[in-house]
């Protein structure tokens, strides 16, 4: 089941890649159904907060007519940063499935762990490494292409 939904998150990452955005995709699932999907749009929208996770949370909240995403799960192709991890905690998402780790800004174990190391009012469950090779590959290809362009 995890791979099925991570493949959907990867489809979102590919949309970001095509827009020359860092290819990160996220989906939110409730009761086995996708209720929101999003990809990075920082460059397109000229807004640093337009990460895939934030956009997916906004869409899911609108669909459920609640900021509380209790019993929802998120699938994201790259480990959330501190902003996104904080939003996940605050939105009460039950569990997060993570593709690739992020050794530079990852806030679910790579640089710090907001889910485990602090006493927040909600503690999301998480699982890392879901389709990690595919999630890493799209990021590596993107940055390889970016280096070619920028020289």
Please describe what this structure looks like.
With 151 residues, the chain is α/β, with parallel strands linked by helices. It contains five helices and five strands. Strands 2-1-3-4-5 form a five-stranded mixed beta sheet. The longest helix has 19 residues. It is globular and about 45 Å long.
Keywords:
single chain; alpha/beta; 5-stranded mixed β-sheet; 5 strands; 42% helix; 20% strand
General form: globular
Number of strands: 5
Question: With helices defined by DSSP (H or I, 4 residues minimum), what is the helix count?
Answer: 5
Amount of beta strand: 15-25%
Mean pLDDT: 96
Main sheet specs: 5 strands, mixed
End-to-end separation in angstroms reads 41 Å
Helix coverage percent: 40-55%
The chain-level structural class is: alpha/beta
Rg computed from alpha carbons, rounded to a whole number of angstroms: 14 Å
Question: pLDDT below 50 for ≥5 consecutive residues: which ranges?
Answer: none
Give the strand line-up of the largest sheet.
Answer: 2-1-3-4-5
SSE topology string = HEEHHEHEEH
Provide a short characterization of the protein structure.
The chain is of the alpha/beta class. It is built from 5 helices and 5 strands; from the N terminus they run αββααβαββα.
């Amino acid at each position: 089941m995890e791979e099925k939904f991570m493949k959907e998150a990867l489809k979102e990452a590919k949309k970001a890649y095509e827009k020359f955005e860092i290819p990160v995709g996220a989906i939110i699932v409730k009761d086995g159904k996708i209720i929101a999907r999003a990809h990075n749009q920082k460059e397109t929208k000229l807004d640093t907060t337009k990460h895939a996770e934030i956009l997916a949370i906004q869409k899911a909240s609108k669909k459920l007519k609640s900021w509380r995403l209790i019993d929802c799960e998120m699938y994201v192709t790259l480990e959330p940063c501190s902003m996104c991890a904080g939003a996940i905690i605050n939105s009460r998402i039950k569990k997060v499935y993570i593709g690739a780790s992020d050794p530079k800004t990852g806030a679910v174990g790579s640089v710090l762990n907001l889910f485990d190391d602090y006493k927040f009012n909600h503690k999301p469950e998480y699982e890392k490494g879901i389709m990690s090779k595919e999630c890493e590959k799209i990021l590596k290809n993107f940055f390889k292409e970016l280096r070619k362009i920028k020289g």
